[in-house]
Design a protein that fits this description.
This protein is of the alpha+beta class. The chain contains six helices and 30 strands. Keywords: Aspartyl protease, Glycoprotein, Hydrolase, Protease, Signal.
């Protein structure tokens, strides 16, 4: 390249405020100020979504909202319980990055949302579910091609593949489709080697997303108000979805997997990502965030770390729970409840609302709490097993609920994370009863008011109390 042309290129990059990441082969360029990427997170019931040209059906009252969350949790739990274990995968550490988020409520298979820009030369913007229990990033997508699924969407924005010259489908006859994507619901249909690689990504029951695997350009913002352009990012061009309304534009897969968008960014920025969830009932102007690398804000001073158990046979983030205490008393829960290798264990999940406890743990926890709430009038509601009239209720009278991890770390959630406001004047114990074969799931309401760091390189989960307010959020 001649010197004038080089100077022109450098000037264009500077003027456009874009830091380009060349991710093909071994060519990578990272700016010195790329300390983090921050995605803004927001709730399904947040007014933010009204400005996103998408209608997700705001519930008429708090009880309607709560029922909607429970319905989504119940649909999701079957899929989560069906996964089993495998071997741990190791990853290599590298630099850091971050992205902002806002608080929200569950829809379909997720609770919190992020803005996502994909395509070129003019990136198209979408609202995606941030889901730590799935790995495929996909959005509603229109691609008219032979052998592709029929286009079928009733709501949400749609990625127009024809408007992006960087869009490339993955051929079904290649190694990527035949070997690498087999575990990600790639279909065997391959009438010709160049036919797009099809998928039917199952979430639970008959609820799934169908489309073609493709590579595309993704644009994300950095802390220093620059942007990075990621090339050849694997995503799902979904042309047909059986996921129930209300539903956003798609899903950002944050699970532990070689095709996960989270692993792609984590590998570039310190091999870690984090998020912080404000109270799901807090005002919509309070921001959540999803960060890659070092966060834009300060970490909590009282951080604790526990082992993050990673397996290449599923996408979940498993934690090694040793027990639960209510008040100062350790509950009598059989150790096999937490034994991951024998079908038990617990995961931490951003897409499940209430905390789900396996049978023995659920029974012990409910017994411990109900005994302390007998003075309140019980209310029969189709929400959780125990609800009561909240007149005279004070959080200070409720015994502390603590999840103990095998290496000594302890999660002490806020009282409002397990005594839930279900309706006006009504509170409920925020635990879901189990079904046969259920694993335990630490849901996002139990996680609220805390900062969570998924350190993939060290196989550590860090957490600590936080207000979760992000300064100067950028999406």
């Amino acid at each position: 390249m001649s010197k004038p042309h080089l100077l022109l290129l450098l000037w264009l990059i500077w003027c456009c405020n874009v830091v380009v990441f060349f991710l093909q082969a071994d060519a990578t360029f990272v700016s010195n100020d790329t300390t983090g990427i921050s995605f803004e997170m927001f709730h399904m019931h947040s007014p933010e979504l009204k400005t996103q040209e998408i209608s997700l059906g705001t519930p008429k009252c708090r009880l309607d909202r709560f029922m909607q969350l429970l319905e989504n949790d119940n649909a999701r739990r079957t899929m989560l319980s069906s996964h089993r274990l495998g071997q741990r995968r190791m990853m290599i550490q590298s630099p850091t990055a971050e992205i902002p988020l806002r608080s929200g409520a569950s829809v379909g298979h997720g609770v919190f949302y992020v803005s996502f820009r994909i395509g070129s030369p003019h990136p198209q913007k979408f609202v995606l579910v941030a889901d730590t229990a799935s790995d495929l990033t996909w959005m509603n997508c229109k691609l008219l091609c032979k052998g592709c699924p029929e286009f079928n969407f009733s709501s949400g924005r749609v990625f127009q593949a024809k408007d992006s010259p960087s869009f490339q489908t993955i051929p079904c006859g290649g190694k990527t489709c035949q070997e690498d994507l087999v575990q990600s619901f790639a279909l065997p249909d391959c009438p010709t080697p160049d036919t797009p690689c099809l998928y039917n990504y199952s979430y639970y029951g008959d609820r799934s997303a169908s489309g073609v695997f493709a590579n595309e350009t993704v644009t994300v913002g950095l802390h220093g108000h620059h942007k990075i352009v990621l090339y050849h990012v694997l995503f799902g061009c979904t042309e047909s979805s059986r996921l129930p309304p209300p539903f956003p534009d798609g899903v950002m897969g944050l699970g532990f997997s070689s095709i996960s968008f989270a692993m792609r960014l984590a590998d570039m920025f310190g091999n870690k990502f984090s998020y912080c969830l404000v109270d799901h009932l807090s005002p919509s102007n309070l921001n959540n965030y999803l960060s890659f690398g070092e966060p834009q804000h300060s970490k909590p001073q009282k951080m604790q770390y526990t082992e993050l158990i990673l397996h290449n046979s599923d996408v979940f983030y498993w934690v090694n729970v040793s027990g639960i205490s209510v008040g100062d008393k350790m509950l009598n829960i059989p150790p096999e409840t937490w034994n991951i290798t024998n079908g038990g264990g617990a995961i931490i999940d951003s897409g499940t609302t209430l905390t789900l406890l396996a049978e023995a743990a659920y029974a012990a926890v409910m017994d411990a709490f109900i005994g302390t709430l007998t003075k309140f009038k019980k209310v029969e509601m189709p929400v959780t097993e125990f609800c009561f009239e909240a007149t005279g209720f004070q959080e200070s009278s409720v015994p502390n609920f603590v999840i103990h991890f095998a290496d000594g770390a302890k999660l002490e959630p806020l009282v409002k994370s397990y005594i839930i406001d279900a309706a006006d004047g009504i509170k409920c114990l925020g635990f879901q009863p189990p079904q046969k074969g259920d694993i335990s799931i630490i849901g996002n309401i139990m996680q609220q008011g805390h900062y969570w760091e998924f350190d993939i390189g060290r196989s550590k989960l860090g957490f600590g109390p936080s207000s979760c307010i992000l300064t100067n959020p950028k999406d």
